[in-house]
Amino acid sequence: MKKINLKQKLYNEEIFIMFYFLRIILAVVIAITFFTPWKALSLILFLVTICIGFIDYARYRITFLYTQVDSILNSLADKLLVDLSAVALYLTGGLPLWAMLVFVIKDILLICGGFYTLYKNEYSIFKPTSMSKITLFFQSIAIIAIIFDTLDPVLLWTAVLFTIGNVLFVYFRPEVKIVKKKTELHNFSYKKLLKPADYITLANVLLGLLSIIFAIIGNLLAANIILLIAVVADFLDGKVARLSKSSGEFGKQLDSLADTVSFGVAPTVIGFTLVQSRLAIIAFSLFLICGVLRLAKFNIMEAEGFYIGMPITINGIIIPLVYFFGLPSQYFPYLYLILGILMVAPIQLKKGNK
Question: Is residue 18 within 8 Å of residue 295, measured between CB atoms?
């Protein structure tokens, strides 16, 4: 088996921690979409989030890199996806109160137990058991069934029984593993990685979330204006990074995450607000998938002086402009298809001074 040195491990950690944060952000967005009539959007975002989770799991299987930060964020992302969805479905009448409580209380108990162990031994990591993975699978299937059509009693009871069994199972086989000794990776602090430009990048993430919220409540004018402001923030973080000479790999990954939220997820929600035809569902789904692929590709490629594929930031300019100029809503799916293809197309574009 090929060994991965510490430098490469830290580099991989910087890349994939962004996928954890993306899953957490998407879990929040999915919960919000349950309060809209766009079931297709909820279903697509839920499936995309699950697929990103599979990417994380595949990465671990290949690299065998699973640090404490990995374990905490991975567990949090999975639990937030199920629990926030369950709470939102209960509030919208799609899930019984008792089922929602079983899902949520199970995770509260496991999290409390895990952090108690972590408090007692700072070198502990969260490692889901096979029972936990099976439980997550049936919980997700039950939620997908509700989104897609209606509550399926058999699937729901199967998920509930596995959830209860999961609580009993971890009593004999805890999900927290105690590492016997401190490793170099435990000294790896992400707080030290935040540079001045990264705070502007975090503002970009918040602007993307604001754009999503305004789109969901139907204020498309505000959503598109905020999207343009996010483009400005994306421009400024690059300027600040160069002026302060503080650019680094972590900043690159954080910037990529912010761009995916602001110029991938937010435009998708804006599009669904405008039109919900079958073609639109396909177009917006492909657009979002292309945006996530763009994130993954950008994180691993080292292209100096040029972009491979259209930068995702351009979506934050084109989509608001065509909205302001009054493009009829029925043409937006075609626009999104073109933009999605351009993001993953093997074309080279010269970089300007960002």
Answer: yes
